[in-house]
């Protein structure tokens, strides 16, 4: 006989059958019926956050670290709208998140009832799809469809909204035998003609560059990228979202391109005669002024989302497909062409790139008075914690330094908010990652501005035994905004200085939330402080690193400017040995 259950029981059963392990959430009136059967589940672990935004970012952190969809839950009205920022963040970075929200009962829909919000309408533009369930019998089908949509093709967030009375009504439970969504295409296979053309273009190129984006990591294609890169000898640049897809220490890795990219990476793209873009979207932070970006290069663009191809840059050879399939096909096409490999392993192109690398390494000055440089703190954390750790950054100057100075040697080892640039991302995302991999050291590298937006996450970490390490790079202000005011607003600093008085006491705040608080002001204490934090593995640790407020992120390209105008200091640009 078909088992009859409440809609809430059906929801919990459907989530269990979808393979969910963790649900990050906060209860409220309209979702409360779902919390009663959730209490009885032996397969689902609920993580009680202190704000719904934390639930969304934690689900995204879990998903980014594992590749599996993360799940968050909230009540109607303000509970649901607090998920808007993390859903937008997940959409920008192609992260599979499934959000479940409660809603007012069906008779009250459209009446401006207490805590009613049209969350489906609100999130229409920041989810791959959303559903409002009008009958309990439909819940298993909708949940199965939600997970399918979130993970098929280009990953992304989805939302399922369920009125309270739907959760309370009884219905038979029917597990969907198949998912029939004709509007959701299956992942396309790359066309052989495009692969052959791309391989031939690479063979003919004198100055090729492989521009690797976050799609490499989403596709689990790091191994295929390594094989292809070493076979061809092509220089590789890895975007902010692709850091770790190709080991930072690999001799073919020129670093990160774009606004705060390395001089070799930026210049390689500008001088290239062929740009092979894989799983990247030519976003403005990489291209700068699109009219001058890689203006002499033929463009090969491979992406799983056909809407991205040609959106920001005209393309000579388009390839639609999953990055792993594309790289596998390109590798085979290269081998079929034959000839000695790797192709551009030596000669003028690599000579030029090596000269750029030698002339413009990523460096910084250590203060003569023994105080802390922010780059020094981040670099030393990476050296002591090692490439086996998992790193999560907030947004701002510390994010850029982290992307350059941490040992990012493997995929899914660096989590950050790229497309949306969401301050407050780091702590909840680190919590989600640590819950996914409890045996792995997880460091949240955050700024003092970002940290204060979601520091309440520490309470959840303490209660749940999530022993993340939080390095607060404390420059007593909103560092990146201050840098922009310095460079483009004549040093007129307003609304960015948090140093008078020095509030809060971050170490004391860590203690107040049940963790351990440490403080480091001097370089001589840096190693000892980091090692002390690494010895604590039962509660979260907050380390207040007091760093120089005047430090800026270099290199830098002004927003909208040509990448030719890269600066390595405030009034200093590289000296080029030839026009291009």
Automatic annotation (TrEMBL):
Pfam families: TPP_enzyme_C, TPP_enzyme_M, TPP_enzyme_N
InterPro entries named in the record: Acetolactate_synth_lsu, AHAS_TPP, DHS-like_NAD/FAD-binding_dom, THDP-binding, Thiamin_PyroP_enz_cen_dom, Thiamin_PyroP_enz_TPP-bd_dom, TPP-bd_CS, TPP_enz
UniProt-recorded name of the protein: Acetolactate synthase
Catalytic reaction list: 2 pyruvate + H(+) = (2S)-2-acetolactate + CO2
Pathway connected to this protein: Amino-acid biosynthesis; L-valine biosynthesis; L-valine from pyruvate: step 1/4; Amino-acid biosynthesis; L-isoleucine biosynthesis; L-isoleucine from 2-oxobutanoate: step 1/4
Transmembrane region(s): none
Cofactor: how and how many bound: Binds 1 Mg(2+) ion per subunit. Binds 1 thiamine pyrophosphate per subunit.
Organism (species): Nonomuraea rosea
Keywords: Amino-acid biosynthesis, Branched-chain amino acid biosynthesis, Magnesium, Metal-binding, Thiamine pyrophosphate, Transferase
């Amino acid at each position: 006989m078909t088992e009859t259950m409440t809609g809430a029981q059906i929801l919990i059963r459907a989530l269990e059958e979808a393979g969910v392990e963790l649900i990050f959430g906060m209860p409220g009136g309209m979702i409360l019926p779902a919390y009663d059967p959730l209490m009885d589940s032996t397969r689902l672990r609920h993580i009680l956050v202190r704000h719904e935004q934390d639930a969304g970012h934690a689900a995204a952190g879990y998903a980014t670290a594992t590749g599996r969809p993360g799940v968050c839950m909230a009540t109607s009205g303000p509970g649901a709208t607090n998920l808007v920022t993390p859903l937008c963040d997940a959409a920008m970075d192609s992260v599979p998140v499934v959000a479940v929200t409660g809603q007012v009962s069906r008779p009250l829909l459209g009446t401006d009832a207490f805590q009613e919000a049209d969350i489906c309408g609100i999130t229409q533009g920041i989810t791959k799809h959303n559903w409002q369930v009008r009958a309990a019998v439909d819940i298993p089908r909708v949940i199965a469809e939600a997970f399918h949509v979130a993970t098929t093709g280009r990953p992304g967030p989805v939302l399922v909204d369920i009125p309270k009375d739907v959760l309370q009504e009884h219905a038979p439970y029917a597990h969907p035998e198949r998912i029939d969504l004709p509007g959701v295409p299956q992942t396309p296979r790359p066309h052989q003609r495009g692969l052959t053309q791309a391989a031939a273009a690479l063979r003919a190129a004198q100055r090729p560059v492989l521009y690797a984006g976050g799609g490499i990591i989403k596709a689990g294609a790091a191994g295929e990228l390594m094989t292809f890169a070493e076979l061809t000898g092509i220089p590789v640049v890895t975007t902010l979202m692709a850091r770790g897809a190709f080991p930072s220490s690999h001799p073919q890795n020129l670093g990160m391109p774009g606004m705060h990219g390395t001089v070799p990476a930026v210049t390689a793209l500008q001088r290239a005669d062929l740009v092979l873009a894989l799983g990247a979207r030519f976003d403005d932070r990489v291209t700068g002024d699109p009219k001058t970006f890689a203006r002499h290069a033929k463009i090969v663009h491979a992406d799983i989302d056909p809407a991205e191809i040609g959106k920001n840059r005209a393309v000579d050879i388009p390839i639609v497909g999953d990055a792993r399939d594309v790289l596998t096909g390109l590798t085979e096409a290269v081998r079929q062409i034959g000839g000695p490999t790797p192709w551009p392993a030596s000669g003028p192109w690599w000579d030029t790139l090596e000269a750029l690398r030698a002339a413009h390494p990523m460096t910084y000055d250590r203060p003569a008075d023994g105080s802390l440089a922010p780059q020094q703190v981040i670099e030393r954390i990476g050296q002591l914690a090692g490439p086996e750790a998992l790193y999560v950054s907030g947004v701002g100057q510390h994010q850029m330094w982290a992307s350059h100075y941490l040992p990012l040697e493997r995929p899914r080892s660096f989590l950050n908010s790229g497309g949306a640039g969401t301050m407050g991302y780091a702590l909840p995302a680190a919590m989600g990652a640590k819950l996914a991999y409890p045996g792995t050291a997880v460091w949240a590298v955050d700024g003092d501005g970002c940290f204060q937006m979601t520091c309440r996450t520490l309470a959840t970490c303490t209660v749940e035994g999530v022993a993340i390490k939080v390095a607060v790079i404390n420059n007593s202000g909103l560092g990146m905004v201050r840098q922009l005011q310095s460079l483009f607003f004549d040093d007129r600093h307003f609304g960015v200085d948090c140093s008078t008085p020095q509030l809060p006491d971050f170490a004391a705040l860590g203690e107040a939330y049940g963790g351990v608080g440490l403080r480091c002001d001097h370089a001589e204490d840096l190693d000892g402080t980091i090692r002390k934090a690494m010895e604590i593995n039962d509660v979260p640790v907050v380390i207040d690193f007091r760093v120089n407020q005047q430090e800026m992120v270099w290199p830098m390209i002004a927003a909208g400017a040509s990448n030719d105008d890269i600066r390595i200091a405030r009034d200093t640009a590289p000296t080029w040995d030839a026009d291009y």
